[in-house]
């Protein structure tokens, strides 16, 4: 019985960690002032008839805080890369110099910063929902064990402590991201 309860607690913590990792990945895609290769994570290039992530057909680097440089592995891809960046609707205006594609990242306006904060809050709320769903699944698994009432109450309290810990962690991540976005 103890090993089954430990398994439920461990698998719940693992699932909640997954929600945190997903949130961190989503936060890395939200632009916060300085250029980052992850900003182009959603760009898919038409590579010989199949959609391929940009980072698999080119090197992406940041020569300075406001510039992204994309060096394709094949020079014939320059136009496709430009087209893919425009299609991704990221608000960037790519330029090519015949060798590579260069993107000057414009500074964020206050209105755009507020929109990004709203987007970050929505992502954090999705992560909280995921954590709460993990709690619900754990409680359902616990009920299936048909353990004594005392053990069940104790384990439910442990599951709630885990949930509270992860919700607090999500709130802290959101505060950090909000501060990062709003810093000029």
What does this entry look like structurally?
This protein is an alpha+beta fold. It contains four helices and six strands; from the N terminus they run αββββαββαα. The strands form two sheets. A four-stranded antiparallel beta sheet has the order 3-4-6-5, with helices on one face. The protein has a two-stranded antiparallel ribbon with strand order 1-2. α1 (2-29) packs antiparallel against α3 (110-145) and α1 packs parallel to α4 (149-182). The longest helix has 36 residues, at 110-145. It is elongated.
Structural descriptors:
184 residues, four-stranded antiparallel β-sheet, 4 helices, 6 strands, 59% helix
Summarize the structure.
This protein has four helices and six strands. It is α+β, with helices and mostly antiparallel strands and 184 residues long. The strands form two sheets. It has a four-stranded antiparallel β-sheet, with helices on one face. Strands 1-2 form a two-stranded antiparallel ribbon.
Topology diagram in text:
Layout: H1 2-29, E1 44-47, E2 50-53, E3 58-64, E4 67-72, H2 78-87, E5 95-96, E6 101-104, H3 110-145, H4 149-182
Antiparallel strand pairs: 1-2, 3-4, 4-6, 5-6
Helix pairs in contact: 1-3, 1-4, 3-4
Query: Helix tally?
Result: 4
Strand content: 5-15%
Helix and strand element order: HEEEEHEEHH
Low-confidence stretches: none
Number of strands: 6
Supply Rg: 22 Å
Query: Whole-number average pLDDT?
Result: 88
Helix content: 55-70%
- What sort of overall outline do the alpha carbons produce when their principal axes are compared? elongated
For the biggest sheet, the summary is: 4 strands, antiparallel
Q: Give the spatial strand order of the biggest sheet.
A: 3-4-6-5
Distance between the termini: 55 Å
Broad structural category: alpha+beta
